[in-house]
Write the structure tokens for this entry.
Amino acid sequence: MPTLRAWRWLAIPVLVVPVGWLLFTGLGRDPRDIASPLVGEPMPAFAGTSLEGQPLTSAELAGTPMVINFWAGWCLPACADEHPVLLDAAERHAGELQLVGVLYQDTPESARGFLARYGDGGWPTLLDGGGEVAVDYGVTGPPETFFVDGDGIVRARHIGPLTQQVMDDQLAALGLAS
Amino acid sequence: MSRLAVPLAAVALAVLVGLAAFVLVQPAAPRTAAEQAQRLAAGLRCPDCEALSVAESRTAAAAAIRAEIDEQLAAGRTPDEVRQSFVARYGEWILLEPADALAWWLPAIALGAGLAVLGGWLLVGRAAPPGSQPSGAISESDRRRARDEAEALDA
């Protein structure tokens, strides 16, 4: 039969170890870093109109690695911060990478103003006035970016502004050398 | 032991009443598609706001989710299928209520386990045989030796 003292020594680690483990693992996590169930799955299809008024569908872009970037003209400074990284990728990987913007809860006028100010890389931006495409991708707010391989499989999702390092790493994972 | 029996019984009774209330006081099943849609929307987190459900939020994303709930219910999908279609895109993060029923029972289980540990601790503390001395207590031989030495000093 264990003594009272033995119970005490058993109770302390039983209480302290789980609480310590929870604090150690929980406090180090980024609350915005939410795993996407879409990673490893086929990209959700989309069809609509581009900012330029042209029809734009995922089917016509299939076959090329893709970077799908959800953004908005009001998304400042985050979308402006990542914009040079997108411009650079579009230029360096012209012909082997398709960039697609999806306008998130914003007007075409606001989006055009953003592109006029920060630079228009020439890739299409899909209008998503009803927010259906954002829901299909499980987007929680701009900027948010999905990396899709040539077979149309979502390989990664990045929440927040892209950095050059993130872009290089993700494009390398898609087989595109920096 | 009798001093602790009453509070322990009271806590155990409170736990049992709480569990019974949880099991019995379940909301009535929704009767119409609108009620079903409202309940589904109330159980989903608004993706682009803080601490609001899809039913409460007025953002475009929440409106799009509400519209899709209506569409899916109209197409004959069950509430669980509708819920899972959003989990497939956002992950379980989108659910305001835990999907695993264990999460509801865990606090009661933890409380019960805590009470069991406490009860065991108290019982073990009182389970020593009558007449036995707790460790660290002065034995009769030590007491006698101390008395003898004190008397020797007085003499």
In short: The mean pLDDT of chain A is 92. Residues 63 and 151 of chain A are 6 Å apart (CA to CA). Helices of chain A lie at 4-26, 58-61, 78-92, 108-118, 132-136, 164-173. Strands of chain A lie at 47-49, 55-57, 66-71, 98-104, 125-128, 144-148, 154-159.
